[in-house]
Specification:
disulfide bond, single chain, elongated, vitamin-K-epoxide reductase (warfarin-sensitive) activity, mainly alpha, de novo design (two linked rop proteins)
């Protein structure tokens, strides 16, 4: 408890301005909008490619940089693993871009809350998204042997979203500690 009290005192001395949290929330919302746009564009490519196999999106630059190859691969749906657990036609086995749309919508919704529990959930979700990005990046580079601009763009957005969520979590927890100390006095 002595260590916790010292940490609380140090944290309380550091200024956590509500303005900082507003900026962090704005950054998170902008990143979510970017992620939503990228995911929606990826889904659009998948739908057009499914309807017309000859369709060539502008992100298919050459044989090594082709987003449609990654997005329409077996790994572009259900992260390439859900089909082992559920049928290929299951409602759970969606294109990864659909999961991206749901993730960024969920993150944007959590941004509207100022509670520390929402910040924790948001940060955990961002950590999981980055683990997924590492997994899919590995598959992209080593298995598909492709560079997908849409995919890599979401990995970058996920990384910056994690950084922003960590800042929000720090600000939220610091604010909660300050409130707790004020109540004890």
């Amino acid at each position: 408890t002595v260590l916790v009290n010292k940490m609380a005192a140090v944290t309380a001395r550091k200024s956590v301005h509500p303005q900082n949290t507003k900026y962090v929330n704005a950054i998170i919302l902008v990143l979510c909008i970017i992620g939503l746009c990228i995911s929606t564009f990826g889904l659009y490519i998948e739908i057009l490619k499914e309807k017309n196999p000859n369709y060539v999106p502008f992100c298919d630059i050459n044989t090594y940089i082709a987003c449609s190859r990654a997005l329409t691969s077996r790994y572009g749906k259900g992260f390439g693993i859900l089909d082992k657990f559920v049928s290929n036609t299951s409602v759970l086995n969606q294109p990864n871009t659909v999961y991206g749309i749901a993730f960024y919508t969920f993150q944007a919704t959590l941004t509207l809350s100022s509670s520390s529990s929402a910040a924790v959930v948001q940060t955990v979700a961002s950590v999981l998204a980055n683990i997924g990005s590492i997994y899919l990046g590995y598959i992209l580079y080593y298995i598909i042997k492709d560079f997908c601009l849409v995919c890599v763009s979401t990995y970058i957005v996920n990384f910056f979203l994690l950084v922003a969520c960590l800042f929000k979590l720090k600000n939220t927890v610091s604010s909660d500690i300050k409130k707790t100390i004020r109540k004890k006095k």
